[in-house]
């Protein structure tokens, strides 16, 4: 990986940038418009939003005002829990597409594995994919048992599984399972919601390369074959989070960071959520 626009190839041949820009908790309106425009200007080509973020309209405006051609961008959104089910997912997709002002979507994800609903939701995603409305379909927050259950009846396997993943939650077993089945792992909250910035090991490695702990973590993602989507509304951090290609962690440093794992979540547990 030499450049911010470098891509991984999903099992169906679709190319997805290794580095994306997340907009979770970024306010609709000027805040998200400016953040998206800043990210695209900084070289990001992947934007990750969701119906639940309530900012798809602003994301659309940011994309439109960026001046970058649609075919050069990779846009992801997600179907929310209350919209899951076959017909309701189809309707939710159309509503997201209208807010995003798109003719097609690059990646559509089931946001959480809602028990008793995610299989019907997946059937809707398969329909949309077969119709050419979505280039790739995937899931978010699915554990191994969710994936195994989904694939019993699926005719298309997920191309991506987006999960909470950072040095305190490295998800080794899930990553190994997904690699085996050619499902690309993508990290949300890759910086552990800021909880890792003061860690002595990360600070020491960062000082060695004249980088920040955040840049070290994002580089660790890339070297582990993890697609990563850091979020910021600060122009300096948006640029810094993309400045990852002039250094490389040693294998020893990668292992040291792996060793920070505590199986610690800052977000919800996919087996115990109530929303």
Précis, in short:
This protein has helices spanning 30-41, 56-66, 86-100, 118-130, 144-153, 172-180, 200-209, 213-223, 235-240, 251-258; strands at residues 7-9, 15-17, 21-22, 46-48, 74-79, 105-110, 134-140, 160-164, 184-188, 227-228. It is α/β, with parallel strands linked by helices and 275 residues long.
Explain how this protein is built.
With 275 residues, the protein is α/β, with parallel strands linked by helices. The chain has a single domain (7-258), classed as NADP-dependent oxidoreductase domain (TIM Barrel), CATH 3.20.20.100. It is 38% helix and 15% strand. Helix 1 (30-41) packs across helix 2, helix 3 (86-100) crosses helix 4 (118-130) and helix 7 (200-209) crosses helix 8. The radius of gyration is 18 Å and the shape is globular. The N and C termini lie far apart (37 Å). The model has no long low-confidence stretch (mean pLDDT 98).
């Amino acid at each position: 990986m030499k450049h911010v626009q470098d891509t991984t190839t999903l099992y169906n041949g679709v190319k997805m940038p290794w580095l994306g820009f997340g907009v979770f908790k970024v306010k609709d309106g000027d805040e998200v418009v400016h953040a998206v425009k800043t990210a695209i200007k900084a070289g990001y080509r992947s934007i990750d939003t969701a119906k639940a973020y309530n900012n798809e309209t602003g994301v659309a405006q940011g994309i439109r005002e960026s001046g970058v051609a649609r075919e050069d961008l990779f846009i992801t959104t997600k179907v929310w829990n209350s919209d899951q089910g076959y017909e309701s997912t189809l309707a939710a997709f159309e509503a997201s597409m209208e807010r995003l002002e798109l003719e097609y979507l690059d990646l559509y994800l089931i946001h959480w594995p809602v028990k008793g609903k995610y299989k019907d939701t997946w059937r809707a995603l398969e329909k949309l994919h077969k119709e050419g409305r979505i280039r790739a379909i995937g899931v978010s927050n699915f554990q191994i048992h969710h994936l195994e259950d989904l694939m019993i009846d699926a005719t298309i396997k997920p191309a991506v599984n987006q999960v909470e993943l950072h040095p305190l939650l490295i998800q080794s077993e899930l990553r190994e399972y997904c690699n085996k089945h050619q499902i690309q792992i993508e990290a949300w909250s890759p910086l552990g919601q800021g909880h890792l910035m003061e860690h002595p090991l990360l600070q020491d490695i960062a000082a060695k390369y004249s980088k920040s702990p955040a840049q070290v973590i994002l580089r660790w993602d890339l070297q582990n074959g993890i697609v990563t989507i850091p979020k910021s509304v600060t122009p300096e951090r948006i640029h810094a989070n993309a400045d990852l290609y002039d250094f490389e962690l040693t294998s020893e440093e990668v292992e040291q960071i792996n060793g920070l794992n505590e199986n610690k979540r800052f977000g919800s547990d996919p087996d115990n959520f109530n929303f």
